[in-house]
Amino acid sequence: MNRFWLAAALAVGLASAAQAQETPDALLDAFITAISSEDASALAQLYTEDADSYAPGTHHVRGREAIAADWQGFFDAFDDIALVIEPHGSVHVDDTHAAWGVWTMTQTPADGGEPFVLTGRFMDVQARIEGRWYYVADHASVSPEMAPVE
Description:
The chain is 29% helix and 47% strand. By secondary structure, it is of the alpha+beta class.
């Protein structure tokens, strides 16, 4: 089932971090909300303090501060960001959860230009710490072609 970012963002809102991370699905909803809100600080709080993030283009950042800075650069470069996540599978064992699937993101260059769509794959690992779910590691790859928005 597709998760449409706007519906999730409106339904979940920017609830407290404890509320937003009670389940792996709530963690994903909070992730989508933070991206659509272009809130790098809120996004970074969804990760463990020493989390690893592998963004499209093969670069790697570690830790909340670096993750926030990495996303802030993206948010500074683009506006009207819309993210749709299509989960393909997951596995859950005790306090660990892994998920994978595909994503589609539409964005408009902040300095003008036409919106464009990126698609790719993702895999992430989450951990429940003191009753709350956090990303421990995530990896996203992007498809090589950009499609114009119709």
